[in-house]
Design goal:
The protein is an alpha/beta fold and 112 residues long. Helices cover 26% and strands 28% of the residues. The two termini are 26 Å apart.
């Protein structure tokens, strides 16, 4: 069973439902769908492993399935090394291994 929710956003005018459809010009309306079905091998991204980010990233890694990949980045290479060490996972860069270390924050955004 798959449930989906469709949402439309308009930058130029308010889209109000009319006869079960949302109104608005296609050029100014973006469509985004959400599904309750889990994606296979999802990739998550996390930037910043400081005082607050480190435990948040640990919590995220603990909550997501083991088959998912967490892509991380921090300017401090010592923080990245400590994070990978504490998790005890191999950071090989392959999908499904647990943690992947990105070269920059842009890589995190593109991969996740």
């Amino acid at each position: 069973m798959r449930a989906a929710i469709s949402v439309r956003f308009s930058t130029s005018k308010l889209c109000l439902p009319r006869n079960g459809r949302l109104t608005g010009s296609p050029s100014s309306t973006a469509r985004r769908s959400f599904s309750t079905t889990p994606a296979a091998l999802a990739t998550w991204g996390f930037i910043g492993l400081g005082r607050m980010g480190f435990p948040m990233a640990q919590n995220l890694r603990a909550k997501i399935p083991g088959s998912d990949t967490l892509v991380i980045f921090d300017q401090d290479q010592e923080a990245i090394r400590k994070f990978v060490e504490e998790l005890g996972t191999a950071a090989t860069g392959a999908k499904g291994t647990g943690v992947e270390i990105a070269n920059c924050s842009r890589d995190v955004a593109e991969k996740s």
